[in-house]
């Protein structure tokens, strides 16, 4: 028969476990939400620099140019279509992170553009600086929202599913998709310039560095302290999944 002392001890352990789970939840979702906001800020900085956008944003801006809808609304609409397509192909519902990404990036982009906090500068050198800072901010935001592993965004989720269904490397599927939307966006009047090229050649290395950094930070915040040597050889967590395919371990 359990004594009153042992029952109190067990209750204390259970409470600590609940507190730890709540703390972990807050850290992971907090990092995710801040990452989404930072990524949207980077998109707005590139838009206001008027030096070219990322391929998908060229497409979104092109759609906004020929319709009464804002670029943020098109981010949400295209995101919904991509999430739905990925769900149909994978026969699985998207994770909450994928759904929130679909909704919030467009919302934050429109909010920042509407607020007018980041005006378009006149000197060409200032536009170049704004473009470069925007690229860096996007890289930081992408890494921060991906590092908690709460679900891939709409575009990444579809790339993952198509890669699995077609048995093709993710890099090849992504390249075909981005070239396709870039051409369509350009035909719709989306801004293609030096920023588009810089994004295409720099976002991969920036995201890899950013993800590695933020995964280490989140592990430290969670009290795990597990070193991450390489993005392709990181310690697997039970929550490491893309929101469409199953968990890797757990």
Report the biggest beta sheet as strand number plus sense, adding barrel if it closes: none
Round the Cα radius of gyration to an integer and report it: 20 Å
Portion of residues in beta strands equals: under 5%
> Structural class of the secondary structure composition?
mainly alpha
**Regions with little confidence, pLDDT below 50 for 5+ residues:** 226-250
- Give the number of DSSP strands: 0
Give the number of helices.
8
Q: How would you spell out the order of helices and strands?
A: HHHHHHHH
Indicate the overall shape.
globular
Relative helix content = over 70%
Alpha carbon gap, first and last residue: 34 Å
Assembly status = single chain
The mean pLDDT is 86
Structure in words:
The protein is mainly alpha-helical. 72% of the residues lie in helices and 0% in strands. The protein is built from 8 helices and no strands. Helix 2 packs parallel to helix 7, helix 3 runs parallel beside helix 6 (154-166) and helix 5 runs parallel beside helix 8 (194-221). The two termini are 34 Å apart.
Structural features:
250 residues, 8 helices, disordered C terminus
Task: Give a brief outline of the structure.
The chain is 72% helix and 0% strand.
Secondary structure layout plus pairing:
Layout: H1 4-49, H2 55-65, H3 71-90, H4 96-115, H5 124-146, H6 154-166, H7 170-187, H8 194-221
Helix pairs in contact: 1-4, 1-5, 2-3, 2-7, 3-4, 3-6, 5-8, 6-7
